[in-house]
Amino acid sequence: MTQQDLLHIATSRYQEAKILLENGKPEGSMYLCGYALELMLKRRILKLLEWDEYPDSDKRYTSFKIHDLNVLLRLAGLEKKIKIDPVVYLHWQVASQNWSVNMRYENTGNSLSVNARDMISGSKVVLSYLKDI
């Protein structure tokens, strides 16, 4: 996937997350918010490394097949930078602490809409931040 592909898909997943929340599906909403953040961080990694495509399927680069948002933040070279912006960092904490790739295997009905709303708003701030850097 190219930087443009990652941006387009991340934007689409975020929009879908909002639709899911509006339709009473907080778990799906939260999962897609985190996935959008994952994609935007991978976009940033491409930019940083000046690569044309993310090496997700190339067996030589299995270490890049990562879903942990905090690890991706570090690989993107943004861990220290995001922490010095108190507003973005607060939203990052809300979004990253409420998400894991394993959410896709969890039963529904365990998440509250308020958690999903927090994740939507936190993700919006972080996605905007990541898009602009």
Map the helices and strands:
Blueprint: H1 3-22, H2 26-49, H3 69-75, H4 79-83, H5 86-97, H6 113-132
Helix pairs in contact: 1-2, 1-6, 2-3, 2-6, 5-6
Provide the helix percentage.
55-70%
CATH top level is Mainly Alpha
Kindly provide the radius of gyration, computed on alpha-carbon positions and rounded to a whole number of angstroms. 14 Å
Q: Quickly count the domains.
A: 1
Account of the protein in words:
The protein is an all-alpha fold. It has a single domain (3-132), classed as Nucleotidyltransferases  domain 2 (Four Helix Bundle (Hemerythrin (Met), subunit A), Up-down Bundle), CATH 1.20.120. The protein is 66% helix and 0% strand. It is built from six helices and no strands. The protein has helices at 3-22, 26-49, 69-75, 79-83, 86-97, 113-132. α2 packs parallel to α3 and α5 (86-97) packs across α6 (113-132). The protein is globular. The mean pLDDT is 89.
Describe the structure concisely for a colleague.
By secondary structure, the chain is an all-alpha fold.
Top keywords for this entry?
single chain; 133 residues; mainly alpha; Four Helix Bundle (Hemerythrin (Met), subunit A); 6 helices; 0% strand
